[in-house]
């Protein structure tokens, strides 16, 4: 079955470790031909934006960070779940705030909107006392885009 | 993660982005480009040939540079765009703002 699960605990090297994983998937054509190179790059961007957000803004309240990354091929794309043990936040509220306050040629505030733009069925919820899960699908059938004002 | 800046002529600088332009080195990119603008550079050729990730913060730092050089009639152009970067360009439609060239040399010829 075309599925993978990995765990990470060191935020200092998390991004490099995940990028190495994606490089390996691309080299070995792990999800080909169902997932094209651009689909895989869109998945990498979505995962990167979320992890960048965790590394920069998440509060782990003294807990040792535990991040889980699972991906599984589906008929229309690839399902991704990223778990963490941070305090979490309300993703829907953040997306609303950012989409209504995005400036022209913005320097900040695009990350979660880019994640939203290149995914479907995006949700972030607490699943038990200390674990939260981000879930989304990167579709192989869409050509998504994020509207940014350039002037 | 090393950015390499090379002066092509008085007004044009080539920035070899390397593996990533993201939240980890976007400030460094901004600072180094700002120094070049203060020294008279107006045009920036960003070489993305080896780049595995351009994230939202990295793109934001390019927007910042664009805002700086546009009033000076300067340009920011993309050269040798890798597939991961092309995904971001398509997602954000930034090809409307940043011209793309197949190679650094092609960009140099046009900006010369």
Question: Could you give a short description of this structure?
Answer:
The complex is a heterodimer of chains A (151) and B (112). Chain A has 151 residues and is α+β, with helices and mostly antiparallel strands. Helices cover 35% and strands 25% of the residues of chain A.
CATH class of chain A, named Alpha Beta
Amino-to-carboxy terminus distance of chain A: 47 Å
Largest interface: A-B, 32 and 28 residues
In quaternary terms, these chains amount to: heterodimer
Mean residue pLDDT of chain B: 96
Alpha plus pi helix count of chain A = 4
Strand order of the largest sheet of chain A: 1-2-3-5-4
Identify the overall geometry of chain A: globular
Supply the CATH superfamily name of chain A. Histidine kinase-like ATPase, C-terminal domain
Major sheet characteristics of chain B: 5 strands, mixed
Strand tally of chain A: 5
CATH architecture of chain B: 2-Layer Sandwich
Task: Walk me through what this model shows.
The complex is a heterodimer of chains A (151) and B (112). Chain A is of the alpha+beta class and 151 residues long. Chain A has a single domain (3-139), classed as Heat Shock Protein 90 (2-Layer Sandwich), CATH 3.30.565. Helix content of chain A is 35%, strand content 25%. Chain A starts with a strand and ends in a 12-residue tail after the last strand. In chain B, strands 1-2-4-6-7 form a 5-stranded mixed sheet. Chain B has helices spanning 26-38, 56-69, 83-92, 104-111; strands at residues 4-7, 12-16, 20-21, 43-47, 53-54, 76-79, 100-101. Chain B contains 4 helices and 7 strands. In chain B, 40% of the residues lie in helices and 21% in strands. Chain B is of the alpha/beta class and 112 residues long. Chain B has a single domain (4-104), classed as STAS domain (Transcription Regulator spoIIAA, 2-Layer Sandwich). The chains are: A alpha+beta (151), B alpha/beta (112). Chain A binds chain B through residues 15, 19, 22-23, 37-38, 41-42, 44-45, 48-49, 52, 55-56, 105-108, 110-111, 113-114, 117-118, 143-148, 150, and chain B through 20, 22-24, 52-53, 55-57, 59-61, 63-64, 66-67, 83-84, 86-88, 90-94, 96-97.
